[in-house]
Amino acid sequence: MLLEDLRNTREDLERLEQAIAERSLEDPKHSQSNRAVDLYKDNDGSRLREIQSISTGDTFDEFYKQLNNIKDFHKRYPNEPVENLERAYKRRAVGEDAPFPSEIDTMFTGEEAFGRYFDMNALHEDYINLPGSKRRITYLQYLDTFDEFEGMPRPDKLKDQYFQYLGNLATYLESFMRRIKPLEDLDRLFISFDEDFLKAWEKDEIAGWQLNTKPTTDGPATEGTGEGIWCPDCEKEFKNDNVYKAHLTGKKHIKNAEARKQRSADGGVTSTNGSSNAATSVHRLKEKAVAEREHRIRKLAAAMQTERSDTRANVERKQGMTDKERQQELAALYAETMDLQSADPAANDAEDQDEEGKVYNPLKLPLGWDDKPIPFWLYKLHGLGVEFPCEICGNYVYMGRRAFDKHFGEARHLYGLKRLGITNSSMFRDVTGIEEATELWRKLQLDKKQESTASDQVVQMEDGEGNVMPEKVYYDLQKQGLL
């Protein structure tokens, strides 16, 4: 059966060469080519023996022998399907049980645009909420500086929140690279990152994680931001040299210095033979783990500079767009998707059947202008799956942040505030509870009354006998003729 196997392999190669213009199937092509080359080499001589048996022996005996082998095979495997190579390599439509398009649709988020841009909004929120983060940077600034870690104080880098943030950032960048470069050997690239880090760590060349050196100022060596003087006893940074000198004479600093000296006497420092103690080793291991993640993030960011610059340009473009322009862009994307589906005759037939029958909407998606469910990516992009209830509107639930923000100026919400006796609605934005609204209105009225009373008592009047009284009381007594 080697000739049949060879014929089947050649047919498989021809089908692959025919479909290579439409689909990327290089790996099966190479594997089948190697298999065909091995059969042509005929290292064990079985191909030559089979050719001799067919050409020299009885033709019908060989034919019936192979036929019996085929029948025996199908008796042992009666449910084995027939291999149809034409169907295996034919491009299938979206609705014909083709797993490839659906996997691509779910592989990237709407913001990533099939691997063109980063989607780091959640990571940006995590960064600005870190304990040691003193600056509230924008998303654009974060895209430029997410691989720069010099601004974070060194002690804050050893906290669990920062370590978890680095892990999430490195995991996202690694996952994004695997998704946009599926044919590259990324495992070897990541191993090279680790090897480079270990070499640099042994040479103490990792930026921001070098061992303590001699101080260049009157105080200890500065850690963290590098803008002041670092006190290792209190683990605190001082911007001014005079403040640092005054701090050295404080009771708290003296107490911390004695405690640190006691820990050093108990074995907290290196011994005379140069061996590190257990506490120092554990501390250095923590620093190594954090430095390893920072090094990997720098390498991953450097390997995806094109996607990073494209993401920044896309964010700048969206920030400069009006709401109408955004709606037009989404409509254009939706129309492009519909055009791709309508280009397939099978898709057109499916649309005709859907128009005649009931609309299939298992996810309960909102309907668009054509009375059909909107795409799921558009549903996720606008956050329409998030519920925002409003008690003032009669516990009405708004789907999506945009509809929720818009309803504060609509008649339903304004009528609910009016029923509560509230007239100034501009002060009650983002207030949805009845109790909260009434309490806030009561407080505003009380503050307004107190402000009015205080303004009346600002001007003081004095009568002929030297009695001091508010202006209003003075004029009332004067009208009554009591002065």
Automatic annotation (TrEMBL):
One of its GO terms (molecular function) is zinc ion binding. It is found in: Nucleus. PROSITE patterns: ZF_MATRIN (PS50171), ZINC_FINGER_C2H2_1 (PS00028). InterPro entries: Matrin/U1-C_Znf_C2H2 (IPR000690), Matrin/U1-like-C_Znf_C2H2 (IPR003604), RNA_Proc_DNA_Dmg_Regulator (IPR051421), SF3A3_dom (IPR031774), SF3a60/Prp9_C (IPR024598), SF3a60_bindingd (IPR021966), Znf_C2H2_jaz (IPR022755), Znf_C2H2_sf (IPR036236). Belongs to the SF3A3 family. Its main location: nucleus. Residues 388-419 form the Matrin-type domain. The keyword Transport does not apply. The keyword Phosphoprotein applies. Residues 254-288, 303-324 are annotated as: Disordered. Residues 255-264, 307-324 have a biased composition (Basic and acidic residues). Residues 270-281 have a biased composition (Low complexity). Keywords: Metal-binding, Nucleus, Phosphoprotein, Zinc, Zinc-finger. This is Matrin-type domain-containing protein. One of its GO terms (biological process) is mRNA splicing, via spliceosome. It comes from the Eukaryota. GO terms for cellular component: spliceosomal complex.
